[in-house]
Specification:
Largest sheet: 6 strands, mixed
Keywords: Membrane, Transmembrane, Transmembrane helix
CATH architecture of the largest domain: 3-Layer(aba) Sandwich
Protein name: LytR family transcriptional attenuator
Oligomer: single chain
Family: Belongs to the LytR/CpsA/Psr (LCP) family.
Structural class: alpha+beta
Number of helices: 12
InterPro entries: LytR/CpsA/Psr_CW_biosynth, LytR_CpsA_psr
Radius of gyration: 19 Å
Shape: globular
Pfam families: LytR_cpsA_psr
Order of helices and strands: HHHEEEEEHEHEEEEHHHHEHEEEHH
Number of strands: 14
Distance between the termini: 41 Å
Length: about 350
């Protein structure tokens, strides 16, 4: 079922489960392990998925001119987006539930290699200065407001010479909701000194237990860091990794009630493209069952920082890094590249 989402209206109650576990799995990267559990309940959940899955009204650009995969390339690339309603300038802003417009504040490319033995999650800094096809040079997060999802996908495909197979949007509120469902999460802060957020939470280097309010503040804060959004990206990666680690435990995956609780918590914050059918997602999840302990995160390297002609703070591209990433995706060696970062 495809429809345009209006977030000014309250959500309607739906029959049965909000969405199947298999939806949550692919996008959240809570992904891999949760999908394995979902296979047990696939027959009962697949119809709920088809009935209740929310999809973007328009996802992909026209096919002409898009990158084409080699015949033997069975890799899958999923673009993950999150958005702040006003462009994401700080933790005082409200997170929009799905980036149908505005600027995409968090951007990750999830790469699933052909062998399905690992998953790489590549964060792209929102302030990266790029060519948005048809619109000139802008920060990469402006592509969404300039031309919607098709323009965002077009920008990513042009930047890395890669075919985007699926797209999904999830806001950080969905992830922090999982923190409540999990009873808190232990996050390993990689920042080398304490920092205090605008909400008054202080975080120390190393592992610390966080409730949902603390976690949301942790993943949104950037004012304390000399490199700003780059450290925020690292914090988001650390948080998502912590959620994965605490979600895909044997205790959770063997407990149908627990799985349903996590799905119901996360699914209202998720919208996918219309090609992610229950069969497609379930097949991917089954094939990824051995990759749950091999999920690698890294951030696209940047060049110098400066101001654009119109006064925006930007990161220029590291051209060599962009070429290396494109080559690694094409050669199925992105796992080696991620390990070297």
């Amino acid at each position: 079922m495809t429809y345009e989402v209006d977030y000014d209206k309250p959500r309607r109650k739906r029959r049965g489960r909000r969405a199947a576990l298999i939806i949550v799995s692919v996008v959240a990267v809570v992904v891999v392990g949760a999908l394995v559990a979902g296979m047990v309940y696939l027959n009962s959940l697949s119809s709920a998925y088809e009935d209740n899955a929310q999809t973007f009204e328009q996802s992909f650009p026209e096919d002409e001119g898009r990158p084409v995969k080699a015949e033997d390339d069975e890799s899958i690339n999923i673009l993950l987006l999150g958005s702040d309603e006003n462009g994401g300038s700080g933790e005082t802003e409200e997170l929009s539930r799905v980036p149908q417009g505005g600027r995409s504040d968090t951007m990750m490319l999830m790469h699933v290699p052909s062998d399905r033995e690992s998953v790489q999650i590549m964060s792209v800094p929102r302030d990266l200065w790029v060519e948005v096809p048809g619109h000139g040079e802008h920060k990469i997060n402006a592509a969404l407001s300039l031309g919607g999802l098709p323009s965002t996908i077009d920008t990513f495909e042009s930047l890395f010479d890669v075919r985007i197979d699926h797209v999904a949007a999830v806001d950080m509120l969905g992830f922090t909701g999982l923190v409540d469902a999990l009873g808190g999460v232990t996050v390993n802060s990689g920042y080398d000194q304490p920092f205090t957020t605008g909400e008054g939470f202080t975080f120390q280097p190393g592992e610390q237990e966080m409730n949902s309010e603390e976690a949301l503040s942790f993943v949104r804060h950037r004012q304390s860091f000399p490199d700003g959004d780059l450290q925020r990206v690292r914090n988001q990666q650390a948080f998502i990794q912590a959620v994965i680690d605490q979600t895909v435990t044997p205790e959770n995956l063997s407990n149908p009630g627990r799985v349903r609780d996590l799905v119901e918590t996360f699914s209202p914050h998720l919208i996918v493209d219309d090609t992610l059918s229950s069969g497609t997602v379930a097949s991917l999840g089954w094939n990824l069952r051995g990759a749950v302990n091999n999920v690698e995160f890294f951030t696209v390297p940047t060049g110098e920082s400066s101001y654009s002609d119109d006064g925006q703070w930007i990161f220029y591209q590291d051209q060599q890094a962009m070429e290396d990433i494109a080559d690694a995706i094409a050669d199925s060696t992105l796992d080696d590249y991620a390990a070297s970062r």
